[in-house]
Amino acid sequence: ARFDDTQINAKGVFADYFSSGQSLTLNSGASASILFKIGNTTALTLDSSTNATFAGNVTATNILTIAGAATGSPYLQFTQGGSQKAYIQYVDSGDSFELQTDNQLVIRTGGSTTALTINSSQNATLAGDLTVAGGDITLGGTGRIQGVDTVTDATDAANKAYVDAQVGSADTLQ
Fold first, then answer.
1. Residue 126 burial class via C-beta count within 10 angstroms: exposed 0-12, middle 13-18, buried 19 and up
2. CA–CA separation, 44 vs 25, rounded Å?
3. What is the predicted pLDDT for the residue at 169?
4. Which of 18-22, 30-34, 64-68, 146-150 has the lowest mean pLDDT?
5. In sequence order, which residues have a C-beta less than 8 Å from that of residue 138 and are 6 or more positions away?
6. Over the range 61-83, which residues count as b (16 or more CB within 10 Å of their CB) and which as e?
7. Interior/surface letters 18-41, b for 16+ CB within 10 angstroms, e for the rest
8. Can you say how many angstroms the Cα of residue 41 is from the centroid of all Cα atoms in its chain?
9. The pLDDT value given to residue 10
10. Which helix (H) or strand (E) holds 12?
């Protein structure tokens, strides 16, 4: 082995000094992994497929880049117990940004306040008011708008009870 500006001691190899433009290269066998340990605990594993596995948290101070191939769809996958639970993906074919979960998607504001929940049946629940800046609300099926409050302004939608009270028993409206 050749080590320039490094030292070898009984516990392993460490870099002593590298000037600008120099790097440390570690090579393992064709099917072996390179392990970075702190004491007896493996902190980072680089396997023969060039996958990196971190044992603890990973912090990016400014930017974390998930890079895919030029025509790929890179994603960030969340697993628990060895199975995928959710992912965030940029889909190249439609230039869309997708979130997927195995149960429900919850968006929180202010730390722990639930703002939006979308469950596995595709039902959405907003915790606050919904403002439609475009002006249109279109029901895609035979749905209903429920929970309409009492009319107070001329531009308010009317609920059935209000209309029934205004019409009474009349057969025709003027």
1. exposed
2. 16
3. 66
4. 18-22
5. none
6. eeeeeeeeeeeeeeeeeeeeeee
7. eeeeeeeeeeeeeeeeeeeeeeee
8. 29
9. 38
10. strand 12-15
The owner of tokens 């099926």 is: 141
- Taking the C-alpha atoms of residue 33 and residue 28, their distance in angstroms, rounded to an integer, is 6
Maximum pairwise Cα distance, the chain: 100
Is the model's pLDDT at 59 over the cut of 70?
A: yes
Q: DSSP letters along 63-132, please?
A: -------TT---EEEEEETTEEEEEEEEETTTTEEEEEESS-EEEEETTTEEEEEE-TTS-EEESS----
Q: Which residue has the higher pLDDT, 25 or 10?
A: 25
What one-character DSSP code corresponds to residue 152? -
- CA trace torsion 53, 59, 63, 67 (10° rounding): 10
Model pLDDT, residue 19: 62
Would you state the structure tokens that stand for residue 142, as one six-digit string? 């035979």
CA distances from 145 to 7, 127, 140, 162 (A): 74, 17, 12, 15
The whole-number average pLDDT for the span 91-103 is: 79
Residues sharing a CB contact under 8 Å with residue 76, sequence separation 6 or more, in sequence order: 66, 87, 88, 89
